[in-house]
Specification:
The complex is a heterodimer of chains A (about 270) and B (about 290). With about 270 residues, chain A is mostly helical. Chain A is about 75% helix and about 0% strand. Chain B has one domain (about 55-290): MetI-like (MetI-like fold, Orthogonal Bundle). Classes of the chains: A mainly alpha (about 270), B mainly alpha (about 290).
C-alpha cells in the first residue's frame, strides 16, 4: 500500500511541477524549486504564449482540435469499413495481400517511414496542407485490429438472418452491424483522439510553415528556441496536456481496455 | 464475373483502407528502398543516379553508426528489462492482498503518462533534470546527496533518458500484466500455499507460468518500442552529449536533415531489418515456450 502510494506520487509529481512552473514567476522558481504551492498566481506566461512563432495560440489550438477531430472521424470510417470487408471475405486474394501489406507497413519503424512519406506527400502536392496531415493520421494498427476483432465475433447466423429477410449488404452493414459496433466505435474514437492529439513528427514533416502546427509541435519548437522562457514552456505544456488528460479521466476503463486489447491482438 | 459483382461492395468498402495503406504505408517503404540505392544529390531528381549498395557500405563503414548501433542495443536491453521488470513487480503488488484499497487510483496514476503527449512529458522531464530550475537536483541538494548530471553529463544521459521513457511507457505494460493477472487461477496459488509453498516459490512455479502470455506481449512490444527510440532524444538531448544518446533512428533522421537521403534511407532499412529479426526471434521464443 505504502509502496504503491509512493510510486503513484512519483508518477504524478511531474504534472504538479509542470502546473506550478506555469503559474510561478521565474524568480520564485529559482529561489524555491521545490515549493508545492505558488507564492502568488502569476499569469504572465499565458500572455507570453498568446503568439507562437508568429502564429496565434488560438489558431494552434484550433489546428490541434481540427486535425485530431477530422482524422479521428476518418480513421473510424476507414478502419471500420476496411476491417468489415476483410472479415467478410477473408479468403479473397486481394484482401489477403492487403492485410499482409498493412501488417508490414505497421512494423516499419514509424519515424523512418515518415521520411519517405515526405517525398510521397510532396509528389501528391499535399505538402504544407491540412489534407496531407489529416490523411496521414487517418490510419493505424489499433483502430484496424479493434474493429477486426469485433467483426469476427459477430455470429454468422445474425448476418444470414438479415440476408434471408432480403437485406442488401449495404443495409446489413448500416442497419445490423454498425449499431452492434457502437461501443467499439466509441472506444476506437477516444483512443484515436488521444493518439492523434499527441502526434508531432508527421505534423512537423508535412508542415511547411508554423501555420499548420499543432500544440505538441508548437511546444517542441518553443522548447528548442534559444534563450528559453521556462515559465512559457510549462504554460504551453499545460495547455497541451489538459485535453487528453480530461478525456482519459472521463473514459479510463474504455481507454485502458481498448489499448491493451488492440496490443494483444496486434 | 458474377462473383466479382456480388463481392463488389466489399471491394468498394475496402478501397479507402487500401488506398491509405498503399499511399502512406507501402509506397514509402518502396521509395525508401529505392532512394537507399541512389546518390543523395540526385535522389529526389527525376532521373536519380543508382549507385548499387554503396550507401549501405558507407553506413556499415561509418564508426559513428557502429557506435550508435551499440548504444541503441545497450539502451534497448536495459529499457526492456527495467520497464517489463518494474511493471511486473508493480502489477503483482497491485494484485496482492497488501493493496486492499485504491487499486483503481494506483493503476490510473501510472497510466496517465501513457496518454500524455510524449513531447509534453519529455519537455517537463528535460527541465526536471535542469541544474537551476529542476526539482530533482534541488531535492538531492536538500537531502545532502551528490547531484545528478542528468542530460548534461555523457555518463548519465542514457539513464536520464531511460527514466523519462520509463515514466511514459511503464503504465502500458502494467495494465497488460493486470489484465493477465485478472484471469489467473487464484485457487492454484492458494493450493500451493496450503501445500507449504513460500511466496517466492508460488511466484516462480505458480504465478509466472500463468503470466507467460503477458510477458511475451510486453517483451516483444518493448523491444520494438525501444529499438526505435526517437521522440525523447529529439526533445531532451539531440543525440548528445558527446553522442551518448545518438540512437540509430535519430542518427538516420539527422542524415536526412542534412540531405544525405541515400545514407539515411540505407540506415532506415538496416534498422528495419534489425527490428524485424529481433521481434521475429522473440516471437518464435514465445511460441516455443507456449508449446
Amino acid at each position: 500500500m505504502g509502496v504503491a502510494g509512493l510510486v503513484s506520487v512519483v508518477f504524478f509529481y511531474p504534472y504538479l511541477w509542470m502546473v506550478l512552473g506555469a503559474f510561478r514567476s521565474t524568480r520564485d522558481i529559482l529561489r524555491h524549486p521545490l515549493a508545492l504551492w505558488p507564492e502568488h498566481a502569476d499569469f504572465a506566461a499565458f500572455a507570453g504564449i498568446a503568439e507562437l512563432s508568429g502564429v496565434a495560440l488560438w489558431r494552434v489550438v484550433l489546428n490541434s482540435l481540427g486535425i485530431t477531430g477530422v482524422s479521428t472521424a476518418l480513421a473510424i470510417a476507414i478502419a471500420a469499413s476496411g476491417a468489415y470487408a476483410l472479415t467478410r471475405r477473408p479468403r479473397a486474394l486481394a484482401f489477403r495481400l492487403l492485410r499482409g501489406g498493412f501488417l508490414l507497413a505497421m512494423m516499419y519503424p514509424y519515424m523512418l517511414l515518415v521520411i519517405p512519406v515526405y517525398i510521397v506527400v510532396y509528389r501528391l502536392g499535399l505538402l504544407g496542407s491540412y489534407a496531407g496531415i489529416v490523411l496521414f493520421l487517418s490510419t493505424g494498427p489499433v483502430q484496424f485490429f479493434l474493429f477486426e476483432q469485433f467483426f469476427r465475433t459477430i455470429p454468422a447466423e445474425v448476418l444470414e438472418a438479415a440476408m434471408i429477410d432480403g437485406a442488401t449488404e449495404t443495409q446489413i452493414l448500416w442497419r445490423v452491424v454498425m449499431p452492434m459496433a457502437a461501443p467499439v466505435v466509441a472506444t476506437v474514437g477516444i483512443i484515436t483522439f488521444l493518439l492523434n492529439w499527441a502526434q508531432w513528427f508527421p505534423v512537423l514533416v508535412i508542415s511547411t510553415t508554423p501555420d499548420t502546427y499543432t500544440l505538441p509541435v508548437a511546444l517542441l519548437s518553443l522548447n528548442g528556441e534559444l534563450g528559453t522562457d521556462f515559465q512559457a514552456i510549462m504554460a504551453l505544456a499545460v495547455v497541451t496536456t489538459i485535453p487528453p488528460a480530461v478525456v482519459f479521466l472521463l473514459a479510463q476503463r474504455r481507454v485502458m481496455g481498448g489499448m491493451t486489447e488492440g496490443a494483444v491482438k496486434g | 464475373m458474377g462473383r466479382l459483382r456480388a463481392d463488389g461492395i466489399f471491394y468498394l468498402l475496402a478501397l479507402p483502407f487500401a488506398a491509405l495503406t498503399i499511399v502512406f504505408g507501402l509506397w514509402p517503404i518502396v521509395l525508401s528502398l529505392q532512394v537507399s540505392l541512389t546518390a543523395s544529390a540526385t535522389a529526389l531528381k527525376a532521373a536519380p543516379v543508382y549507385v548499387g549498395l554503396s550507401n549501405y557500405a558507407a553506413v556499415l563503414a561509418d564508426p559513428v553508426f557502429t557506435a550508435s548501433l551499440v548504444s541503441t542495443l545497450v539502451y534497448t536491453a536495459l529499457a526492456v528489462v527495467l520497464n517489463v521488470g518494474l511493471a511486473l513487480a508493480y502489477a503483482l503488488l497491485l494484485d496482492s492482498p497488501y493493496v486492499s484499497r485504491g487499486r483503481a487510483f494506483f493503476k490510473l496514476a501510472v497510466f496517465l503518462p501513457v496518454v500524455t503527449p510524449d513531447v509534453a512529458g519529455y519537455v517537463v522531464w528535460r527541465w526536471l533534470y535542469d541544474q537551476s530550475f529542476g526539482a530533482i537536483n534541488a531535492a538531492l541538494k536538500l537531502l545532502g546527496l551528490p547531484l545528478f548530471g542528468g542530460i548534461a553529463d555523457p555518463g548519465t544521459a542514457m539513464l536520464a533518458v531511460l527514466l523519462a521513457e520509463l515514466w511514459h511507457h511503464a503504465g502500458f505494460y502494467v495494465v497488460i500484466f493486470l489484465a493477465n493477472l485478472a484471469v489467473c487461477e487464484k485457487a492454484l496459488s492458494e493450493a500451493a500455499s496450503i501445500d507449504g509453498a513460500g511466496p517466492l516459490q508460488r511466484l516462480r512455479f505458480v504465478i509466472l507460468p500463468q503470466l507467460r502470455p503477458a510477458i511475451a506481449i510486453n517483451v516483444i512490444y518493448a523491444l520494438i518500442q525501444f529499438l526505435k527510440t526517437f521522440s525523447v532524444v529529439v526533445v531532451m538531448t539531440k543525440g548528445g552529449p558527446a553522442d551518448a544518446t545518438n540512437f540509430v533512428s535519430y542518427y538516420a533522421y539527422q542524415l536526412f536533415d542534412q540531405a544525405q537521403y541515400g545514407r539515411a534511407t540505407a540506415m532506415a532499412t538496416i534498422l528495419f531489418a534489425i527490428v524485424l529479426a529481433i521481434s521475429l526471434a522473440a516471437y518464435r521464443t514465445a511460441e516455443r515456450g507456449r508449446a
